[in-house]
Amino acid sequence: MKSCRAIVRLLAVLGTLLLVSCIDGREEYWIHADGSGRAEITYSLPAAAARFQGGADGVEKLLTDFFANTPAISSSTHAVTVKDDRLTVSVTARFDSVVELHKISDNGTMGNFPSSADGLTGDIKLDLTGREVSASRVISAGKALPMASLMPAAQFAAHRLCYIVHLPVAAKVSNATRIENGGRTLVWDYPLAEALRRPLTLRFQAPVPIPMRWLVGGIAVIVVGVLALFVLWRKWRRTR
Prior knowledge:
Elements: H1 2-20, E1 24-31, E2 37-46, H2 55-68, E3 73-83, E4 86-95, H3 98-101, H4 116-121, E5 123-129, E6 132-139, H5 141-144, E7 160-166, E8 173-174, E9 178-180, E10 185-191, H6 192-197, E11 200-207, H7 212-238
Parallel strand pairs: 1-7
Antiparallel strand pairs: 1-2, 2-4, 3-4, 5-6, 6-11, 7-10, 8-11, 9-10
């Protein structure tokens, strides 16, 4: 009898994990010339998947604690809703430095999230060389949803993962599936079935623009410097 109960429980757990595979995700980022920006992120998945996190209330608390302990995010709002057996998580966040933002996965603040979140967060690398930034992100949705291989491909037909980055200048190089706005908007849009078969690699290279406030500040420093030299020159002339 105990064996039967154990098998039933195992099947129930597997059933819930399989449901998690029906996921949709959209992440959109706006990056400004000074490195600050904002993000709008929305994920939708079966409500049953949240049971292990205490349901919608548990997910709500998880997000509240995360943002309270993440100084790299200057302000944020989030909502967790359930409709027609689907749970939707929507997040809007602002950040002062994209460099500090990408370090979130390394500073321990992600520790309270399920381990499957690592696959969707992915491996993010940001490199600044001279006046050029190189960014890459490898997303392993298959690791995040390990039971997906047991489901027929048709199950994922209507589900997608989409990532959008708006840059202040046109990217020099990228592997985006779609490029808009004169090269300043990069879109990576994949069917979930494809994302589960292999890791997705998102990458681009772009020149680093000089923020207008830096440019104005630089001009001001030059003007002040020239005036100071002129005043010193006049004093020197008077002493001769």
